[in-house]
Design goal:
alpha+beta; Immunoglobulin-like; 19% strand; 7 helices; elongated; five-stranded mixed β-sheet; 37% helix
């Protein structure tokens, strides 16, 4: 598929421009390879000429500096400099033209009908919103995971809720800055199913390095199934432990920051937790979503991600255990 396919095999593949899975990333990779090849060849030539010059200067007897320049030597030097300048100009124009071509190709999809997804950058997590058909009852909100159908054109409509962030999924597209008070669009398409990691690419504070997201490309059937499941309200507890866990959730500080549809929790300070158990990661890609990590995160997120907006939640061990049981039921 790409000219660096074999080399890209050395990388995990989930966050590298050397493993493009969409048309824009493919063009970006082409430009990357072209610029890398040209600059490498130029570097090797310059180093070879420099080496030859140094070797000759060390092996020849020093000659007196001529009082008048040799016309033939001057002509040869002028020709050499002129040819070098001509080649340099040609190579710069080649890279410039290819760069313009790539910029054009990455914008071509924007003219096509696209599925809309709103992405909001927070310190330090991603809020994802699906405004399907502009109907409030069909609105899906999730966090740090963007599910899209394979082959579908998707318009990422992004902004920031606090400081400057930058949305970057290198396997799929270039980066797009998200500025507070402004809205930027990024149109993309993924042609291969899989999970592709993205990252904030603009330094945004203490936990900038731990602000990741996943783009999950699925078949249309699987995406529709996921979407319908996300539309549902939270599941009713089926055990006494989960029921008590819901009570703990609704009577502690959790309810002040999070939403769980189907309950009285309706705050948008933190991620929507209606289907938190269906997500593969928590804390914006910092931890795998399992019981141990979820327990540590709820109890004291500051020990895992210092500076994040999630406060410690001191509570009896029995309450914490039941709360985690309830959160694990939210699939």
């Amino acid at each position: 598929m790409t000219c660096l396919a074999n080399f890209a095999g050395l990388f995990p593949g989930r966050q590298t421009p050397l493993r493009p899975v969409g048309p824009q990333a493919l063009h970006i990779e082409h430009t990357l390879v072209l610029v890398f090849a040209i600059t490498t060849i130029v570097y090797l030539i310059v180093m070879a000429v420099l080496t030859v010059g140094v070797v000759r200067a060390r092996t020849k007897e020093p000659l007196p500096v001529p009082l008048t320049p040799d016309p033939s030597t001057e002509r040869r030097a002028s020709w050499a400099v002129g040819i070098a300048l001509g080649i340099t100009t040609l190579l710069l124009f080649i890279m410039l033209i290819d760069s313009f071509r790539t910029s054009h190709q990455t914008a071509v999809l924007a003219a096509q009908p696209a599925m809309k997804i709103n992405v909001y950058g927070h310190m330090w997590w991603w809020e994802v919103e699906y405004p399907m058909d502009e109907e409030p009852y069909r609105m899906v909100r999730t966090a740090n995971e963007i599910h899209i159908p394979v082959g579908a054109v998707v318009d990422i409509h992004g902004t920031s809720r606090d400081v400057i962030h930058s949305f970057w999924a290198p396997n799929i597209h270039g980066k797009k800055d998200l500025l507070p008070g402004y809205q930027n669009d990024l149109t993309l398409r993924v042609d291969e199913p899989g999970t592709w990691r993205g990252q904030c690419a603009e330094f945004c504070g203490l936990q900038h390095a731990h602000m990741a997201f996943d783009i999950v490309a699925q078949s249309r059937k699987d995406f529709d199934k996921w979407y319908v499941q996300q539309l549902t309200a939270s599941a009713e507890p089926t055990t006494s432990e989960a029921a008590h866990g819901r009570e703990v959730f609704l009577t502690h500080t959790c309810v002040m920051c999070h939403t769980v549809r189907g309950t009285s929790a309706n705050s948008h300070v933190g991620p929507d937790l209606t289907h938190v158990a269906s997500r593969s990661m928590i804390a914006a890609g910092t931890l795998k979503n399992n019981r141990g990590n979820l327990t540590g995160w709820v109890a004291n997120a500051q020990s895992i991600k210092p500076g994040c907006r999630m406060p410690p939640n001191p509570m009896p061990a029995s309450d914490l255990n039941d709360l985690i049981t309830y959160l694990e039921s939210l699939k």
